[in-house]
Amino acid sequence: MMHPETARLAGALADATERALREAEIRLPPDVLAALRKAAEAERNEVARQELANILENIALAEERQVPICQDTGVPVVYLTLPPDIPLSPDLYQGVREGVRRATATVPLRPNVVDPLSRENTNDNTGAGMPAIHVAPGDRFTVTVLPKGAGSENVSRIGMLLPSQVAEIKRFVAETVLLAGGRPCPPVILGVGIGGTFDLAAALAKEALLLPIDVMDDYEQELCDAVNALGIGPMGLGGDTTALAVKVKRADCHTASLPVAVNVQCWACRRATVEVER
Ligand code: SF4
Fold first, then answer.
1. Are residues 98 and 192 located together in one domain of the fold?
2. Taking every annotated instance into account, which residue ranges of this chain make up the domain Fe-S hydro-lyase tartrate dehydratase alpha-type catalytic (predicted)?
């Protein structure tokens, strides 16, 4: 049985998780929307311009009708920040799971979570190890959700490059997008994790998708230009706009390693953060 105070916090976290999922699924973050509008203005290819106009119309209709932006509502990836006075407890994990269950029923979300081998659907978007919940210390008690669709997740890649292949990172990133073609619903946003270990590089790549895309440093811009030079274009039909942005997170690594992970994200870069009401 839960301690009353822990139960209260878990309940508040469930509410916040449900709210964050509703917000993320229905409304794109302002930086992503601005990037799509900017791309639509700059695009020179007529078919690509029409595709971007269709995407923008889809986004506007979703907000007007208060329905999810895409039929693939993804699987929730969840990030919690906990201030020093809130200890991490199993009840908080239960709070997140309850919020996901409720959002599945109320938003509603497509039940996407299945057993990996039997493919049996849990029907509420929770399951063994799902949703993925990442916890970090912070000043505020917040929940951030990043619903991840399969079209883009399935074409993500990790490479264990050699330490001498730093200059090859750009080729690896562009090759990932080239191999993916139209499958991840471009224009994409790429989260790139460089360094760490096999698992940390993948985690960094996903965290990079939480960063605002209205600014890129010189290296991120260089990678983005290399991807856009591919000419894959919106929905893979050709054009200037293959990637809206590339965001990079790094960690130091073994002197003999150079892990590089590319987490591909479609234009529906859904993310939202809600402060938990305590
Ligand atoms: S890749 Fe993105 S836009 Fe395409 S179907 Fe999946 S969630 Fe929807």
1. no
2. 15-274
Q: Give the helix, strand, coil percentages of the chain, each rounded to 5.
A: 45, 20, 35
Distance CA 93, CA 62 (A): 30
Give the tens place of pLDDT for each residue, 186-219.
999 999 999 999 999 999 999 999 999 999 999 9
Ligand 1 contact, 268 CB (< 6 A): yes
Quick check: is 39 in a domain? no
Which residue, judged by its Cα, is nearest atom 4 of ligand 1?
A: 185
pLDDT at 5 over 90: no
In the reported structure, the alpha carbon of residue 159 is separated from the centroid of ligand 1 by a whole-number distance in angstroms of 24
Residue 34 lies in a domain: no
- Per residue in 85-112, pLDDT (tens digit) is 999 999 999 999 999 999 999 999 999 9
CA of 266, closest atom in ligand 1: 2
169 CA → ligand 1 middle, Å: 26
